[in-house]
Design brief:
It is built from two helices and four strands. It is α+β, with helices and mostly antiparallel strands. It has a two-stranded antiparallel sheet. The longest helix is centred in the middle third of the chain and has 7 residues. Strand 3 and strand 4 form a beta hairpin.
Amino acid sequence: MPEQQSMSEPMQLEDGWPVAHPEAQGFDAARLAALGPRFDAWSDANLHAVLVTRHGSLVYERYFTGEDRRFAVGSVGRVTYDATMLHELRSAV
């Protein structure tokens, strides 16, 4: 897997998402970088990923380890996510 350039700058992958420096899109990179540790400390959030886009460019991404479930299978335990993993999505109303 490619290395992430910094805590607030996403990896440049050939996945169709252009990547921009946070400051180039009007964000404070330090404030974005502070999101990851806050979510790491909030275990009840069970967050798998945070992605921030602006004007069509990815400016922040961070992946976490958390409990996950698969449709028709149930719990699959703790999963460590990254930018290259497919993730099952469902919507809630």
